[in-house]
Amino acid sequence: PDAVTVSGLADLIHVRLDHLQRVITNMGMGELHHDYMLTPEDTTAIVLEFDINPIITEDKGKDVQPRDLPDDMSEFPLRPPVVTIMGHVDHGKTTLLDTLRKSSIVDSEAGGITQHIGAFAVTLPSGQRATFLDTPGHAAFSNMRSRGAHMTDLVVLVVSADDGVMPQTAEAIEHARSADVPIIVAINKCDKPGANPQKIREGLLKYGVQVEDMGGDVQVVEISALKGTGIELLVENIVLLAEVLDLRAPTDGPVEAAIIESQSEKGRGLSASLLIQNGSLSVGDIIVAGQSYCRIRSMTNDLGKAVKIAEPGTPVSATGWKDLPEAGQTAIQVESESLAKEIIENRIGKAKQAETLKQIQAINAKRLVSH
Ligand code: GTP
Ligand code: MG
């Protein structure tokens, strides 16, 4: 805004209107009505009077951070790998997941299009457990793909052999790269008459993905998610890569969990799907995520079954949130509800302060320009 009213400024800098008006009068600017439009010059002068320093912000409030883990994690137990399935729209990601867990999610999706991140605990044929995140391939859901890539240990990149390396294939490669996560390529729909897996291998080269049989070290498997062919080999590759990554996490100590998604549901209230990263989450625990907290009222696994405790590497849906947490944030356990409230109050205060400073800086910038 070019200018701000007296009451608008009072809101902006969090002082009472009558107090602001008194200060203005004392500055020799007369008695101003709350609707009076202040010029940017006046505003700056008044703000300076309040001694708001846009650079130094002191912080004495309580907060909570993820714990420091040692470089050498060997003292901790192994956890299931988190595998994110990514790729272009309709290339068969959800079908692959259905085949892996012998389910039929695709049939229940509106228009057969995935519109959220699904998290599933899968017991692989080898008996090992893994958590799969299914991401949407539609162009509009780039944020979800980015989030998926940042929560995962490895990415299975699904590319349809009857189509090719498409825009969201390339985008998925970028996400995996920026999250520094290894890729396994699954060339899908190899059952189709027009399938050309070699074309996919060559197409991937253009994006810097060099698969094994093209001289690189990225594993590639030809599959048909629909017919179930090649799935065993894909699973073997996933298990092998997970073993190499030696994925471990402490099962005790304060819980940390990634918010995969959050929603308001009829009958359940506010809920969030979480991916447990460290520690074991139990019903009754208190976790803080951003400006929201939760005393866990209930937890359900991906089959909708109630669970009392969730360990690292597993997804759960948790109810009991006071506000909807933001996807992508990290939830951290605290000892008490009162501490959770204190932390959130502090975070909200800090966010407000940052916002105020930004607005004051904008006003100042405007003033400089107008001179
Ligand atoms: P989005 O989530 O919208 O990005 O799609 P998706 O990648 O999850 O694709 P989905 O699994 O919904 O499959 C899209 C279509 O391809 C469906 O009609 C599937 O039956 C079909 N399909 C998937 N895998 C195969 C396969 O291996 N062979 C054949 N012939 N069809 C397949
Ligand atoms: Mg899908």
Question: Any overview of this molecule?
Answer:
Keywords: GTP-binding, Initiation factor, Mitochondrion, Nucleotide-binding, Protein biosynthesis, Transit peptide. Residues 78-251 form the Tr-type G domain. Its main location: mitochondrion. The protein is an alpha+beta fold and 371 residues long. It has 9 helices and 17 strands. It has helices at residues 6-12, 17-26, 40-49, 93-101, 142-150, 167-178, 197-205, 231-245, 337-370; strands at 4-5, 37-38, 82-87, 118-123, 129-134, 154-160, 183-188, 219-222, 256-265, 269-278, 281-282, 286-289, 292-300, 306-307, 309-310, 315-321, 330-334. The strands form 4 sheets. Strands 4-5-3-6-7-8 form a 6-stranded mixed beta sheet, with helices on both faces. Helix 6 links the parallel strand 6 (154-160) and strand 7 (183-188). The longest helix has 34 residues, at 337-370. Magnesium ion (MG) is lined by residues 93-94, 114, 134.
Secondary-structure map:
Elements: E1 4-5, H1 6-12, H2 17-26, E2 37-38, H3 40-49, E3 82-87, H4 93-101, E4 118-123, E5 129-134, H5 142-150, E6 154-160, H6 167-178, E7 183-188, H7 197-205, E8 219-222, H8 231-245, E9 256-265, E10 269-278, E11 281-282, E12 286-289, E13 292-300, E14 306-307, E15 309-310, E16 315-321, E17 330-334, H9 337-370
Parallel strand pairs: 3-5, 3-6, 6-7, 7-8
Antiparallel strand pairs: 1-2, 4-5, 9-10, 9-17, 10-16, 11-15, 12-13, 12-17, 13-14, 13-16
